[in-house]
Amino acid sequence: MFTLIYITTSCQDESESIGRKLVEERLAACVNIIPSIKSIYHWMGEIEEDSESVLIVKTAQELTPEIVKRVKELHSYDNPCIISIPITGGSRDYLEWLNDEVKKP
């Protein structure tokens, strides 16, 4: 089983740094980066607006806890957005490649 993990960061540089580590450590087969998004959210009783960057991490579902732990170690936020979305289908060839590229838990 596979998953996409959606992560927001403070900027593209932080996304690139975290994404590269996840791929180097074989926690992810691939990381896509969306360089800039606008985020509006509640934080500490206030409405905040920020420019952020997004990582979309493609990985094996079993690696999700390890990815969450690693991202928290690398991330600049106290409470980063890290959300796992199950992959329920797709190209068999691509999913086989994904499986071959991540470390086995």
UniProtKB/TrEMBL annotation:
InterPro entries: Ion_tolerance_CutA, N-reg_PII-like_a/b, N-reg_PII/ATP_PRibTrfase_C
Entry protein name: Divalent-cation tolerance protein CutA
SUPFAM superfamilies: GlnB-like
Entry's transmembrane regions: none
Source species, domain of life: Archaea
Molecular function GO labels: copper ion binding
Biological process (GO), any one: response to metal ion
Organism: Methanothermobacter wolfeii (Methanobacterium wolfei)
Family: Belongs to the CutA family.
